[in-house]
Batch of 4 targets.
Target 1
Amino acid sequence: MNNADIIDVLQKAKDTISDPAHWCTEYSSVDAYGNDAFVSDREPVAWCIYGAIHKVFTDEGWEYNTVKRAKAAMCDYTVDKYALVASTFNDNSTHQDVMKLFDDVIEELRNGLEVEYDD
């Protein structure tokens, strides 16, 4: 698997939630009223780390294994560095921390980080 594809998915997911108004905690995505919203059910307006990655998959039609590897890269990094899965990191961090996490994982991938994931 080419890290360039994973980097592209992560960069687009980061761009999706770069405005704090489009980032959420506690849910994968929320609607305009702050209610839990599945990407395919209602019109979400904010996403968590994983929700943003899933939005990129849904909007752009990425191969599902690429999306799973992007999620795995985020989770592997947060577990190794913070002893937290990415969703817990998202829910217990600031928006700025989440943006930095995306930057850190993308940088690690550019430096050759191997994503451990079984297809």
Note: Residues 62 and 108 are 21 Å apart (CA to CA).
Target 2
Amino acid sequence: MRRIKLPKCRREYQGYVIDTSKAYYIFIDKTLTYDPAIDTLIEEWAHTIAGFKGGTENELEDHGAAWGRAVSKVKQAYLKF
């Protein structure tokens, strides 16, 4: 994981995902400390598992039931690690 300084247009977020159709790229704000960065990574990773297509502005669509289930599964796996 490499954290970066988020562009001005993305600073309202702690992280985000870009889907290039070949791969997902997850960006995490470098100003976050370790625990919030891990939580953000888990949530962004959940977007990829839940089938996030990127570019939507609909908060409910991006954070629906499928995303919630994915967050739960990823967090459980992390806690077992």
Note: Helices lie at 34-49, 59-62, 65-80.
Target 3
Amino acid sequence: MKKKDENSEKELKESIDNLTHIMKKIYDLFSEASEEMYAEHDLNSSRVMPLAAKLDVLIEQNKILAKSILKVLDELKEVKKEEKNLKMLIEKEKLQALSKELEELEKQHKENE
């Protein structure tokens, strides 16, 4: 079960890393395209300005997405940490219960001797 959780976590992290990498490539591509458009065309061009504005919006949206992905990853790490702590607490309680049962059995065994 633990191995499956680790694999799922690893796959999720790899997917998020891959998505982040792709988003960075898209961001770089749009940034480069925007810079080239500004360099090659008149900034007041009626055709260039709407495209440049759309590229700026896309760049901002990509920044927001990247930040959101990082927040999700941080939350996932926190959930995994809490899950691990909860599992440890459950195991501790099980051990305490087993210890009590063992003490009871030892007590009964001594009484029966």
Note: The chain has a mean pLDDT of 83.
Target 4
Amino acid sequence: MTTQTDRKIAEEERKTFEVQEAAQKQRQQLARQTAIADIQQQVVGAEQGVNIAELKANANVKQATGEADPRACVRSVKRKPSAPPGRPRPKRIASASNHSVRRATP
């Protein structure tokens, strides 16, 4: 009878071990899947950060190119009116070097 009891106890211990082992594997799998999901979230965030940085860099390049383009400066100068509408253009003052100066003779 003790042999039979020992066998039943050994069988129950084996079953208990198998159930505990399966539960441990499930916990490990859950932890692994949770870690993967967290990493994927970080990857998506990093990708979006890179996309935003690229867009900002492209905008800065376009702005700098537009500011450095001499043709753009010339176009803006040509379009700019010399005087506001309704006002006469300012007159040019001749410099003294263009006119001869006469001295009075005594």
Note: The mean pLDDT is 81.
